[in-house]
Design goal:
The chain is α+β, with helices and mostly antiparallel strands and 503 residues long. Among the domains are: 219 residues, FAD/NAD(P)-binding domain (3-Layer(bba) Sandwich); 92 residues, Glutaredoxin (3-Layer(aba) Sandwich), CATH 3.40.30. The chain is 32% helix and 27% strand. The chain contains 15 helices and 23 strands. Strands 1, 2, 8, 9, 10, 11, 17 and 18 form an eight-stranded mixed beta sheet that branches. Helix 1 packs parallel to helix 4 and helix 1 runs parallel beside helix 7. It is globular.
Amino acid sequence: MSIDADVIVIGGGPVGSTALAMLGRAGLTAIGLDRDREMWPTARAVHFDGETMRTLQGLGIAEDVAKVTIPMKDVDVVNEADEILVHAPTDRLGDQAWNEHVSFHQPDVERLMRQLIEATPGVELRCGVTATDVVNVPGGVEVSTIDPDGMRQLMRARWVIAADGARSDVRRIFGIETDKYGEDAQWLVVDGDLIDAPGHQTDMIQFARYSRPALWLRLPGNRVRMEFMLVPGDDPEEIVTPAAVERLSRGVLPVDRFTPERQAIYTFRGRIARRWREGGVFLAGDAAHQAPPLFGQGLCAGIRDVENLIWKLDLVARGVADESLLDTYETERKPHATFWVETAASQAVMIQTLDAKVAEGRDEYIRSHPEATAVPTSPALGAGFHEGDADERAGRLGIQPILADGTRLDDMVGTHFLVAADRAVHSALPAALRAALDTDADVVTLLDPLKVDRILSAAGGRAVVMRPDHYILGVGDTAEDLERLILRIPSVASAAAVAAENR
């Protein structure tokens, strides 16, 4: 089958745009389709974590993104009586070499991403083009489209990434249902500029008020966001007025000093798609999972999806890995995303209660267990292309050290497999395998203690093999362990198989 591109990406939001940029970086051709003619002008997502910033670093735009974002310095949980139940400082570098909590204005970041796409050979984003049907066919996928002028086109690709949002048409086309987590709740989301008014001093506050749960978030510049849960008796038309916003914010967003950019009612929900793959079609981002925004992991999870998938597509496209590698996308990512959806849904239940007695018991519990509201440690991947089923050190996100000269390690390694090892362990490898590593373009080997000691210490071994998405393939303590892990790297395994055939 002749193809128009290796991959068609449906959806031009942050996840779809990131996918396009990653595909171009990998040398794959890709066409993005976005039904909107213009970039969405207002904010939706407002939070990145350190792992997401590391992904943007790999695309070469993290420093530019850092200029239009702000690190979140602290978080509070506050009850009905305005008692601060929890205060947590968050302004610090994490083990990804970036701040773990970063606030941003989405159009600023999307603009940078679209500039990157325009400058990247082999990929393009077509705005105002809607995918009307998606069909798996022998050798690939056919996508029917219609443009703003009513022109229809049939496009073909080897694969499709459906990053078309919570109401995904692609998910509907394939009849993929979702499982529900927690209880749905309607919230008013208000974004805008707050001028000559103090707002709240803390960057993020969860107001666990049983009269009306709410959220506050300070964004770059003069921008702020507040969110208010709808309660019985609310008038959906009245509640979006400036006077209502001032009342709900208890005067924090006064009519004469707050200029709203968006006031909209959203349903916060927890959902996981039952299938993430249909032939050559992969769901990603909100099309695959949706979470209440309590931990700010919605967009982060979508970026993880495409980070996980695209290096695998690259290996398969080049014939280095078998297509069965793509089966590990769902098995690895779905349990990981489900953890965050379940955790956010549980936090939402705790924050959203409207029952005074329940709130009283919750407050007492939080006073005694403040860690209950903390952002949990990110889990390991589900079963897949790593040794986590036999070794709990594997399948987890690896760290990124900042070296003595200020260089972040990924700026040296790039998007390759990383072999980090104690020199003695590496020296004990068979000479032929060491030579193969030295000539393999998909692998970077580091032995300098100044570069690898922190990686080895964090992983708990004398040798670590890390995947291009920075998750740990495996950890070893002996040369035999390291040899086993290296032979799992697809390019090394492929070369070894060819060498064996030629003997």
